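Fill in residues.
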């Protein structure tokens, strides 16, 4: 019987690895196809003229806004970790370096760096890292969706007649999403109860795979319970508004410097689409999807020609990678120059 269970576990692990490999192959193919199409749309001989439109003050302003984005992200991590002893001298460099690795490494592998660095430099548990990262990502996505939906309503004349009803639907959706996130622990436990019959062995007995899944989800639910504090949750939600604002300002400065002229709701819709492109899971480090999202938004809401919109998408994504690399290198240096928080069994220096 034990041999049968072992074979079942091995088969599921093999199937999981095969599925992961197929997803990665598909991501590479999608990225190559998107880039091949987008690169062909741009008149690269005029790309240097596009760069020359942005004055030095524009580049500096965008870099400062991008720095503010990372500082607010570090503040949100500190709030979600709910540890008053989280030192800024380590948490800010971790955030800077993590942000770079998320953009640089394929298949979302950069997300793991945050959890690993919290463990190695601050001695925090893996569950604390996962829950704070998960909470940050969900809050960020929630704000982007709500702001994007509101901007669409504000800029779409054909929806004017139903605007009040649609705004009500958006408001209700936002409230329901916030409540579901606030009660994330009970929600995960409820989902686990529903999914348990699906992860049981064929003979009705729970195998090691099911135990591992249940244990991980149970630990995540316990960690999500930590944010079920009104002060902590509202502070994290409020800080996420500032992370969105900083990201919006970074791109708004560059778009205005490039001469893009549109109403504020249209700018919000364009920039929110660019943010959605970064979150698309089936590409390598967002390449192709980010440029496509920018191009689509600029053509739809700013009326830009296809070649100019696509070139602008490459410029904006390229700036984000450059800024992330610049601050990521600074974060890397600061991480290795700072001393990690000692573990309980590590002797500390005598005063």
């Amino acid at each position: 019987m034990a041999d049968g269970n072992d074979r079942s576990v091995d088969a599921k692990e093999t199937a999981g690895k095969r599925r992961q490999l197929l997803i990665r192959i598909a991501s590479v193919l999608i990225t190559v196809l998107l880039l091949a199409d987008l690169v062909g749309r741009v008149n690269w001989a005029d790309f240097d003229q596009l760069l020359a439109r942005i004055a030095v003050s524009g580049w500096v302003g965008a870099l400062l806004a991008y720095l503010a984005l990372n500082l607010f992200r570090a503040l949100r991590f500190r709030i979600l970790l709910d540890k008053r002893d989280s030192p800024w001298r380590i948490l800010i460099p971790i955030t800077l370096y993590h942000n770079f690795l998320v953009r640089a490494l394929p298949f979302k592998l950069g997300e793991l760096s945050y959890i690993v660095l919290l463990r190695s430099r601050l001695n925090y548990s893996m569950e604390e890292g996962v829950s704070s990262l998960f909470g940050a990502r969900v809050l960020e996505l929630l704000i982007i969706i709500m702001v994007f939906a509101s901007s669409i309503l504000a800029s779409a004349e054909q929806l004017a007649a139903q605007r009040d009803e649609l705004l009500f639907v958006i408001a209700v959706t936002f409230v329901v999403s916030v409540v579901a996130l606030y009660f994330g622990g009970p929600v995960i436990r409820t989902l686990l109860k529903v999914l348990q019959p699906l992860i049981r062995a064929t003979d009705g007995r729970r195998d090691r795979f099911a135990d591992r899944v249940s244990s991980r989800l149970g630990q995540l639910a316990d960690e999500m319970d930590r944010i079920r504090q009104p002060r902590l949750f509202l502070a994290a939600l409020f800080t996420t508004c500032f992370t969105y604002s900083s990201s919006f300002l970074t791109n708004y400065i560059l778009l205005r410097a490039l001469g893009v002229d549109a109403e504020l709701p249209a700018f919000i819709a364009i920039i929110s689409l660019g943010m959605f492109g970064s979150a698309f899971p089936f590409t390598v480090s967002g390449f192709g999807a980010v440029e496509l999202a920018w191009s689509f938004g600029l053509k739809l809401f700013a009326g830009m020609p296809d070649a100019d919109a696509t070139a602008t998408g490459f410029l904006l994504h390229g700036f984000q990678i450059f800024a992330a690399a610049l601050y990521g290198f600074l974060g890397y240096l600061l991480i290795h120059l700072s001393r990690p928080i000692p573990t309980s069994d590590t002797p500390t220096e005598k005063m």
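The longest helix spans residues 2-41.
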